[in-house]
Amino acid sequence: MKSKAIFYHAGCPVCVTAEQNLAAALDPARFDLEPVHLGEQSSRLAEAKSQGVQSVPALWLDGQVFHINFGAALGDLG
After folding, report:
1. Strand pairing of 31-37 and 3-9?
2. How far is CA 14 from CA 20, 28, 40, 77, in A?
3. Among 1, 43, 44, 73, whose CB has the most other CB atoms within 10 angstroms?
4. Gene3D superfamilies in the record, alphabetically (predicted)?
5. What pLDDT is stored for residue 54 in this prediction?
6. How many Cα atoms occupy the beta-carbon half-sphere of 25 within 13 Å?
7. What CA–CA distances, in Å, run from 55 to 18, 22, 27, 70?
8. What distance in Å separates the CA atoms of residue 48 and residue 28, rounded to the nearest whole number?
């Protein structure tokens, strides 16, 4: 069974590069990667916060959040 991976970001150049690198690095046989651009999908801000995301870009994987770089706080996006 595949694990779900969600990459939350705000669309900045660092975020886009990180998304591309994650897509190339994560084994598609093991992970379903869902990129979520919170600048375009602001309706998912509450979801991100409930998952433990404090800033973007961040990767939610197997119930854990990995903050990759500090680009923007979630409060700055909504």
Report:
1. parallel
2. 10, 22, 16, 16
3. 44
4. Glutaredoxin
5. 94
6. 9
7. 14, 17, 25, 6
8. 22
| Phi, psi (deg, nearest 5) at residue 11 | 90, 5
Is residue 20 a contact partner of residue 75, using CB atoms and an 8 Å limit? no
List % helix, strand, coil for the chain (3-state, nearest 5): 35, 40, 25
Q: In whole angstroms, give the CA distance from residue 52 to residue 49.
A: 5
Tokens 């309706």 sit at which residue?
43
- How would residue 1 be classed by pLDDT, with cut points 50, 70 and 90? confident
What would the two tokens of residue 5 be? 């991976």
**Alpha helices in 1-78, H assignment, sequence order:** 13-25, 45-50, 74-77
